[in-house]
Specification:
10 strands, eight-stranded parallel beta barrel, alpha/beta, single chain
């Protein structure tokens, strides 16, 4: 048996398990609940941070990924407008839609520096900036968000994060701010910080603008990350909660392990996620 065949069979098993977990539809029923909406399963390009744009897009084509959050190693923030356009054209030609850019860290309230990032996002036509602004930067970020009319989703980074361990800290920071400022919930970091990501979907409401999806074998250990569907996180419950909210934002796999050769883990994780999502839609 070839390695590719083994991977294909394992992926098929994972997808079948996902569908079973989500719950099969009754015989003769044409579709799920009329409230069911398609979930936009995609990829955070950070998952392939050691691979080229071409390699990443080849994998996206192979596994039918249509949505991408772009990290700067694939679209550098110091790119010229011409370079940005070249990469954008390449991504579009692969049939992939850019759902946002980031994570971009703003540790200081340096308006000139943050403005450059908004100009970069404007040139790339990002519909969303995923960011981590420190307390000194959040006022500037909101000001420029209004000026450029590019929403900002603040990413939480778990117990190690000084400001946003979970999306609850994000909510506290933005509760009186413009509605275009929201959260990018990293479900693995949220889980490690002791908060159930499923509960956070309702708690965040319309402030939930983006998701980074990963799975963990041990909720206390960042290093226990595994392929989605093999760990402790309730992916089925999460996707059901997103359906109830009629969430139409990006659900991006952020696969942070096996950096030299992440392709098989990405294949398996995307297959599981799509299996769950497809079963819920029917």
């Amino acid at each position: 048996m070839s390695r590719h065949t083994a991977i294909s069979r394992r992926t098929l098993f994972q997808t079948s398990a996902a569908i079973a977990a989500a719950g099969a539809l009754p015989a003769g029923r044409a579709s799920a609940s009329p409230r069911a909406v398609p979930l936009h399963i995609g990829l955070a390009s950070y998952s392939m941070r050691k691979q080229s744009v071409d390699d990443m897009l080849a994998l996206c084509k192979e596994i039918d990924v249509k949505y991408l959050t772009v990290k700067e190693m694939h679209l550098p923030r110091n790119s010229t407008p011409e370079q940005i356009q070249q990469i954008k054209d390449k991504i579009a030609a692969a049939g992939v839609a850019i759902t946002g850019g980031g994570v971009i860290n703003w540790n200081k309230g340096d308006e000139a520096a943050i403005r450059k990032d908004f100009e970069y996002a404007k040139a790339a036509k990002f519909p969303l900036i995923v960011a981590s602004p420190g307390p000194d930067a959040i006022d500037v970020a909101e000001k420029l968000m209004k000026e450029f009319n590019i929403p900002v989703a603040i990413h939480n980074h778990g117990p190690e994060d000084k400001h946003y361990q979970t999306p609850r800290e994000v909510l506290a920071a933005i509760k009186n701010r413009d509605k275009r400022m929201g959260a990018c919930m990293d479900i693995g970091h949220t889980f490690r910080a002791g908060v159930n990501p499923v509960d956070m979907v309702a708690e965040l409401g319309d402030r939930l603008m983006d998701l980074h999806v990963k799975d963990l074998k041990d909720k206390m250990k960042k290093e226990s990350q595994t392929e989605v569907g093999r760990g402790q996180l309730d992916i089925v419950g999460l996707f059901k909660a997103l359906q109830r909210r009629r969430y139409n934002g990006h659900i991006g796999l952020e696969y942070e392990i096996n950096t030299d050769h992440p392709e098989n883990g990405i294949r398996e994780s995307i297959a599981y996620m799509k299996g769950v999502a497809d079963a819920l839609v029917g």
